[in-house]
């Protein structure tokens, strides 16, 4: 449903958010290893998220990526998806057909509308703090 960059981006943001709750900044290497993502690909995703202001980074021996604690309760999953995948996930065809629309629907078009609406609602209602609170502590293979 999500692009690969969006999947990795969501994983990276949740990993960073979890570490940020305990005031830990994490390196690119730690993030990419922990979320099982190629480092160069992770770097490009984090660059987008940093440019968008959702993730911060600092350089130096105590540097790394982090999210301000006060932002954890305001950043929604939909914000991250929007930056990485745009809004096409809410409007695109369930079969990936370009010509699918209300006038020329694919066989799954009207069944997929409800799924897209539910997905949008779930992403808009869940903030990073809500998801991190419910996260199993070893969901990512922490390598600090």
TrEMBL record:
One Gene Ontology MF term: DNA-binding transcription factor activity
InterPro entries hit by this protein: Tscrpt_reg_Rrf2 (IPR000944), WH-like_DNA-bd_sf (IPR036388), WH_DNA-bd_sf (IPR036390)
GO cellular-component term (any): cytosol
Top-rank lineage group of the source organism: Bacteria
Pfam families, per database record: Rrf2
The protein's name: Transcriptional regulator, BadM/Rrf2 family
Species: Cellulophaga fucicola
